[in-house]
C-alpha cells in the first residue's frame, strides 16, 4: 500500500511535464513510439522528462527510462566535430604494427631471443619506435548544486557523452557541489554508457565549490600526456563556497564554460577574468554541438 502511494505521488510530480501522460500512460509503462514522436516535436522538453523518469519511484518505469535515456544521450553525444590537437608529435615505443615504425630491438629482445631456437616470434611482444600524434584530453565539470533534474540533468548527461566519445578514455568527469566527486578518472577506463548512467543518477543539492572543482580538474588533466587539455565547466559559475576560481583556473591549459542561456551573466564574468570562452545553451539537444564548435579550432 505504501509503495502504491509513493508511485502515485511520484506520477503526480512527473505530471508537471506536459507530455508525461502520453509517454507513460499507466504505471510502469513507457511508450517508445510516443517518446520518439515527442523527441521530434520538442527534444529538450522530452530529454528533460526522460532524465526525471530515470529517478522515478516506479522501479519498472525507472529502469525503462534509464535504458532509453542512455541510448538517446549517447546518440546525441556522437554529433560530428573535429578537435584539433596541439603540440608536436613524439617518437615513442609502441606495440608492434606492420606500419607502426622501426622495430625496437632492445625493447623486443625478450621476444626475439627464443625465436633463435625454433618458436615463432609472438608479435604481441614486439615493440616499435614510431611517431605519435598529440591527442586531446578532456575534463568535464558538472555543477550539481541547487536544482539538478529535468533539462539541466539531461544537458549534463549529453555533455558527458560528447566528452566520452572524443576522449577515448583520456577524459575525466567531475560532479561538484559542496564536495567534488570523480565520476570518471582521467587514467581509469570506463565504458561511456556507465559514465552516462552515473551522471543521470546525480541529484542536486548543497553549495557550489567552483574553486575546489577547478583544482581537482587540474589534478586529473595533469595525469594525461596529451598535447591539448580542455576543461569544460558546465555551470552558471555562481560559487557559494570561499575560494578563488580565477587563481585555480590558472593551472588549467584551456577552459570552456558552458552556461544556461537564461543564467549566464556570472559565467561571462568569470570567463572574462580567466580568458575562457563562454557558450550559452538553451537545452540538452544543443550542448554537444556547442562544445564541439567552441573547441574545434
Descriptive notes:
Helix content is 45%, strand content 18%. The model has no long low-confidence stretch (mean pLDDT 86). It folds into 3 domains: 2-77, no CATH class; 90-132, no CATH class; 136-295, Rossmann fold (3-Layer(aba) Sandwich), CATH 3.40.50.410. It starts with a helix and ends with a helix. The strands form 2 sheets. A 6-stranded mixed beta sheet has the order 6-5-4-7-8-9, with helices on both faces. The chain has a 3-stranded antiparallel beta sheet with strand order 1-3-2. The chain has helices at 2-14, 20-23, 32-41, 43-53, 59-77, 105-115, 150-167, 192-200, 210-221, 245-249, 265-274, 284-295; strands at residues 90-95, 102-103, 127-132, 136-143, 171-176, 180-184, 228-234, 254-260, 277-281. The protein has 297 residues and is α/β, with parallel strands linked by helices. The chain is globular and about 75 Å long.
What is the straight-line distance between the termini?
58 Å
Question: What would you say the CATH architecture of the largest domain is?
Answer: 3-Layer(aba) Sandwich
Strand portion, in percent? 15-25%
The CATH topology annotation of the largest domain reads as Rossmann fold
Could you spell the SSE succession in H and E letters?
HHHHHEEHEEHEEHHEHEHEH
Mean of residue pLDDT?
A: 86
How large is the count of helical segments? 12
Number of strands: 9
The CATH class of the largest domain is identified as Alpha Beta
Name the shape in a single word: globular
Amino acid at each position: 500500500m505504501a509503495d502504491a502511494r509513493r508511485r502515485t505521488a511520484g506520477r503526480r510530480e512527473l505530471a508537471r511535464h506536459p507530455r508525461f501522460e502520453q509517454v507513460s500512460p499507466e504505471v510502469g509503462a513507457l511508450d517508445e513510439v510516443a517518446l520518439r514522436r515527442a523527441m521530434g516535436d520538442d527534444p529538450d522538453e522530452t530529454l528533460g522528462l526522460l532524465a526525471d523518469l530515470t529517478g522515478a519511484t516506479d522501479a519498472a518505469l525507472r529502469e525503462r527510462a534509464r535504458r532509453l535515456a542512455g541510448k538517446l544521450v549517447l546518440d546525441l553525444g556522437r554529433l560530428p566535430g573535429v578537435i584539433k590537437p596541439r603540440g608536436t608529435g613524439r617518437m615513442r615505443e609502441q606495440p608492434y604494427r606492420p606500419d607502426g615504425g622501426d622495430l625496437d630491438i632492445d625493447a623486443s629482445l625478450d621476444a626475439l631471443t627464443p625465436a633463435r631456437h625454433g618458436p615463432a616470434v609472438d608479435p604481441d611482444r614486439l615493440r616499435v619506435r614510431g611517431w605519435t600524434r598529440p591527442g586531446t584530453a578532456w575534463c568535464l565539470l558538472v555543477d550539481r548544486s541547487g536544482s539538478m533534474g529535468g533539462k539541466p540533468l539531461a544537458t549534463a548527461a549529453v555533455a558527458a557523452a560528447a566528452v566520452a566519445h572524443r576522449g577515448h578514455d583520456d577524459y575525466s568527469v567531475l560532479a561538484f557541489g559542496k564536495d567534488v566527486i570523480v565520476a570518471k578518472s582521467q587514467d581509469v577506463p570506463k565504458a561511456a554508457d556507465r559514465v552516462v548512467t552515473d551522471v543521470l543518477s546525480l541529484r542536486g543539492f548543497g553549495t557550489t565549490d567552483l574553486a575546489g572543482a577547478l583544482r581537482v580538474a587540474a589534478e586529473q588533466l595533469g595525469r594525461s600526456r596529451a598535447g591539448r587539455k580542455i576543461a569544460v565547466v558546465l555551470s552558471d559559475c555562481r560559487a557559494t563556497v570561499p575560494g578563488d576560481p580565477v587563481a585555480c583556473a590558472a593551472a588549467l591549459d584551456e577552459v570552456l564554460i558552458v552556461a544556461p542561456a537564461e543564467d549566464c551573466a556570472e559565467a561571462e564574468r568569470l570567463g572574462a577574468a580567466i580568458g575562457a570562452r563562454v557558450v550559452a545553451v538553451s537545452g540538452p539537444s544543443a550542448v554537444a554541438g556547442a562544445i564541439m564548435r567552441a573547441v574545434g579550432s
